[in-house]
């Protein structure tokens, strides 16, 4: 751990501060002020946010903590740096304008040591994200818990209000900026819960109900919203509510599986966060003013190009919880934590824990249905665009680069969860920090138990299952789906066609001799196929005979099941009698 007055701390602090100021100025400068460099604004902003992410990653890897005496307002600590890594992805995608400035103010708020400065900067960022009307007044109230003591009796109630308001703010966005209020809420909620410690049952129930209400509202929005951007923001709101529930179980209760709940939260803030960023980017820009607007716009990134549809499918798979992608590691940790919590708790507390986990499973099902709705709508839009033959303009695929980078980072985090846990371990206060180790780089592991999960082993198991299914289909001649029949032209079905349609003559072409054909003629195998060879024919006949015998044996066993059970019981009884002597 690096000391507060070291040169490295000063370098990271000054570098982050300068890069944030540069990103804010570049995001708000008008085009005429940049003159010839206006065309490079996006690249310059991307470089600045990339530098912020690199500095934050280095600081988190080296466990840099503390502040410096010459700068009383800004400093560095453990929870800040991992959140800045995720904020760098968000800022690089949002880029310019007032929403880009909101990213800058959020990053400066994460660096603020004073709660008052944090509330001022984070509240201003939320105002920039708010639309006209009540949001501009209500959203800044969400950061009030940062300005009151953690031991105040009003703190849990204000935390519930903060969760509800920020969940509303997340669900109202229509692009990657939806992750800004989610990041602010996750950062503040984890810090305050770590300071308050174990809460009483009433306060725990209120926080769990608040997070569950936000998650349920996001799932309902994902199932009912008429636009793709609204569906994606609903999914982001559901993810924020789920992380609030996990944080409450990890830091505010005295359950046995607190470390497992905490690990699930760290993993949930990794690959799913980045996959949601990509999904929000692909679904952004839909016009809600038009009541008759289609689900996806005519130039939507998710449907205009084949690459966009591939990236959308990857984002949906990362968020679906299928093994081993993204949310499956979170689900595995949640199941481990639920088992430990239910076994080691009192009956009433165990029952409540089981009910919370059942509700979380129901919310996950609703979220998967929302993802399925998004994927089916993109597929229908693709068929419509193919029928209309409206190709995307040149250079349109470059807009997919931010989503591709986010998904690449999400896949890396999902495949290397040990490194991500070692990097994010200071995001929330725990009993013992995880140190980086090459031995645990590929696995999800806990501090208090020896149980671990390796996603790459899950990939290998899936490949083995697919290979065995293909082998069984080849040997037994059984496939669960009908094999597609290739459609051929009319002149390929029979003899040569002289005239086709309106009398157009079919030109006959002589195929050149192929070396493989010459070799077959030389060996006398020109008109033979491997099926007609005696060895292959006899082997296939023996395989068919063995398959029919197997099916007849299985059918007889199914018909005489009770007789077999009695025979096995008698044989076991006799064997036991002789063995006992």
Name the features.
mainly alpha; 581 residues
What does this structure look like?
This protein is an all-alpha fold and 581 residues long. The protein is 66% helix and 1% strand. The protein contains 23 helices and four strands. It has helices at residues 7-28, 31-34, 41-61, 80-94, 97-111, 115-129, 135-138, 155-171, 179-196, 201-224, 228-251, 258-268, 271-282, 301-304, 306-320, 327-344, 347-388, 401-415, 417-424, 455-476, 515-523, 534-559, 561-580, and strands spanning 444-445, 452-453, 499-500, 504-505. The strands form two sheets. The chain has a two-stranded antiparallel sheet with strand order 1-2. Strands 3-4 form a two-stranded antiparallel sheet. α4 (80-94) packs antiparallel against α5 (97-111), α10 packs parallel to α17 (347-388) and α16 packs antiparallel against α17 (347-388). Mean pLDDT is 79; it is low at 287-291 and 504-513. Keywords: Membrane, Transmembrane, Transmembrane helix.
Mean pLDDT: 79
Total beta-strand segments: 4
Largest sheet: spatial strand order: 1-2
For the report, how would you describe the main beta sheet?
Answer: 2 strands, antiparallel
Radius of gyration: 30 Å
Q: Oligomeric form of this entry?
A: single chain
How many H/I helices? 23
Secondary structural class: mainly alpha
Helix content: 55-70%
Query: Which sequence of SSEs, written as H and E, runs from N to C?
Result: HHHHHHHHHHHHHHHHHHHEEHEEHHH
Question: What general form does the structure show?
Answer: globular
- How far is it from the N-terminal to the C-terminal residue, by CA? 68 Å
Estimated share of beta-strand residues: under 5%
The stretches of 5 or more residues where confidence is low (pLDDT under 50) are 287-291, 504-513
């Amino acid at each position: 751990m690096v000391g507060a007055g070291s040169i490295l701390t000063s370098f990271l602090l000054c570098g982050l501060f300068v890069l944030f100021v540069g990103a804010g100025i570049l995001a708000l400068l008008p085009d005429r002020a940049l003159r010839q460099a206006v065309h490079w604004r996006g690249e310059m902003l991307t470089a600045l946010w990339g530098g912020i992410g690199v500095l934050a990653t280095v600081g988190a890897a080296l466990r840099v903590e503390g502040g410096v005496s010459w700068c009383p307002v800004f400093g560095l600590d453990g929870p800040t740096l991992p959140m800045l890594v995720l904020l760098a992805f968000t800022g690089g995608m949002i880029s310019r304008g007032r929403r880009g400035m909101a990213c800058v103010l959020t990053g400066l708020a994460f660096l603020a040591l004073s709660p008052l400065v944090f509330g001022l900067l984070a509240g201003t960022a939320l105002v920039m994200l708010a639309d006209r009307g009540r949001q501009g007044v209500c959203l800044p109230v969400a950061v009030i818990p940062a300005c009151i003591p953690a031991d105040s009796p009003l703190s849990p109630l204000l935390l519930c209000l903060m969760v509800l308001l920020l969940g509303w703010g997340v669900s109202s966005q229509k692009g990657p900026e939806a992750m800004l209020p989610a990041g602010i809420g996750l950062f503040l909620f984890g810090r305050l819960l770590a300071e308050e410690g174990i809460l009483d049952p009433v306060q725990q129930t209120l926080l769990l109900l608040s997070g569950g209400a936000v998650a349920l509202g996001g799932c309902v929005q994902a199932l009912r919203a008429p636009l793709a951007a609204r569906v994606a923001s609903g999914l982001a709101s559901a993810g924020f509510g789920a992380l609030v529930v996990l944080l409450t179980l990890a830091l505010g209760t005295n359950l046995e599986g607190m470390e497992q709940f905490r690990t699930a939260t760290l993993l949930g803030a990794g690959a799913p966060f980045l996959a949601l960023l990509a999904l929000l980017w692909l679904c952004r820009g839909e016009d809600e003013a038009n009541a008759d607007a289609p689900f996806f716009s005519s130039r939507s990134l998710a449907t205009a190009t084949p690459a966009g549809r591939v990236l959308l499918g990857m984002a949906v798979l990362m968020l679906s919880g299928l093994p081993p992608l993204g949310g499956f590691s979170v689900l595995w940790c949640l199941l481990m934590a639920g088992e430990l919590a239910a076994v080691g708790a009192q009956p009433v507390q165990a029952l409540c824990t089981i009910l919370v986990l059942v509700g979380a499973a129901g919310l996950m099902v609703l979220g998967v249905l929302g993802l399925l709705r998004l994927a089916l709508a993109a597929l229908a839009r693709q068929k419509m665009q193919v029928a209309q033959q409206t190709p995307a303009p040149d250079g349109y695929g470059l807009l997919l680069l931010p989503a591709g980078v986010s998904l690449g980072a999400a896949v890396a985090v999902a495949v290397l969860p040990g490194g991500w846990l070692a990097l994010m371990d200071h995001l929330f206060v725990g009993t013992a920090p995880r140190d980086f180790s090459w031995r645990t780089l590929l696995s999800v592991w806990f501090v208090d138990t020896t149980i671990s999960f390796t996603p790459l082993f899950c990939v290998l198991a899936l490949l083995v299952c697919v290979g065995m299914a293909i082998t069984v289909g080849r040997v037994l001649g059984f496939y669960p789906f009908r094999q597609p029949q290739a459609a051929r032209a009319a002149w390929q079905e029979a003899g040569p066609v002289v005239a086709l349609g309106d009398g157009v003559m079919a030109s006959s072409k002589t195929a050149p001799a192929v070396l493989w054909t010459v070799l077959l003629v030389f060996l006398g195998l020109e008109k033979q196929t491997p099926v007609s060879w005696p060895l292959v024919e006899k082997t296939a006949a023996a395989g068919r005979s063995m398959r029919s015998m197997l099916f007849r044996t299985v059918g007889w066993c199914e018909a005489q099941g009770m007789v077999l059970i009695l025979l096995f019981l008698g044989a076991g009884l006799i064997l036991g009698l002789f063995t006992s002597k």
